[in-house]
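re: that chain from earlier
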Amino acid sequence: MKEIRLGICGLGTVGGGVLDLIKSNADRLYDQVGAPIKVVKIGSRSKKPLFHDEEILFYQDVLLLADDPDIDIVLELIGGVDIAQELVRKAIINGKHVITANKALIASHGAELFSLAQKHSVSLRFEAAVAGSIPIVKVLRESLSSNKISCVAGIINGTTNYILSEMAVSDRSFSDILSEAQELGFAEADPTFDIEGIDAGHKLVILASLAFGIPLSLDELCVEGMSQISIADLKSANELGYRIKHLALARLVDERIELSVHLALISETHLISRVDGVGNAIFIQGDPSGETLLCGPGAGAGPTASSVVSDVIDLARNLIQEQADQVKYLGFSTTAIKPRGLLTQDEIVAPWYLRIEAEDSSKSISSITDILTKRDISKQTIVSRAIDTSSKKIEIVIITNPSSAKALFDAVEEISRLQSIFGAITKIRIEDLPSCT
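^ sequence. v structure.
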């Protein structure tokens, strides 16, 4: 009976989780595949990790696993792009099947690697690259393949969701909660990729390609960080019936596509607004399926290992039956994957939330209203309240009706130049997502 032999490259949080899962669930995996699945080699750039299995050989040079004749499937779990790309390319050229959890690699070099895998008649799987244990790649590529997708929107970074969730229920600042997230292991020592939206942007590019059949490309992706958020914004949003989330959005607009990662006010009645902590959630609108919401842990050893091993099982079944992959990498034939027009940030039309600190005078509100009206931006709601009596400052919160981002940004720039305005003006989009209740 054929044995499926694995080589794990990288034994950090995810790699360690995969090794533990395969060893602890060996009997179940055998029952699902019909053959043993065994880790035979491990490569890690750090010193030999503490694992006790004399049958597993260790290499400090991860590239050695790419052409090892004893390995059927290489698991790329080292992260980063440069070495990971070299490893995956080499493994594919040497006839190895590859499974990766590397969203940056797929978003940046997926097209090249998929083409190379097809040329060498091997598989490249990537379920774990997006949203941890949520099987979103399989859902978009297979389960909803008969649908015309019009929108994919998600909370797909656990670090930013944890920070926003904690700020919403406490009086602690962004920096305080970020430090806490780092201590708890929810945020990296350098959190830039998370809080500036880069991590979510990589994942969004993959989701958009699966949903709309467009090439994997980071060009023209609009990415907004979330470090400017304040407790005042979260409280004001809550009072108005909204919650603030860091949202990744791919949406079809008149046969063009909007791709953006941004802070968003979402109605507290929408299920996605209630996903807190490090949880992830992905909303999909399709025809004829309607609205679907998938939720689950988005990171960590267990959730990500679950997705990696699910790819191992699928691939192992094919190898046992000597079958090639029946599903295209992005769910579309190669000739069907074509560029489509993308919306620029200026072209986005949405309602907006504005929070402005100004002098406590009727002239302040009048001047702001005049500037908005001049650009055809109408107000849905306007609320003003005193910040403190000693400084005679007021806080003005405005919810606009839908308007173009360009008109809104130009208005905010003009308002900020008024002598009665203090500090920076907060502007956040309001997303009216279809209900999935």
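The longest helix spans residues 301-321.
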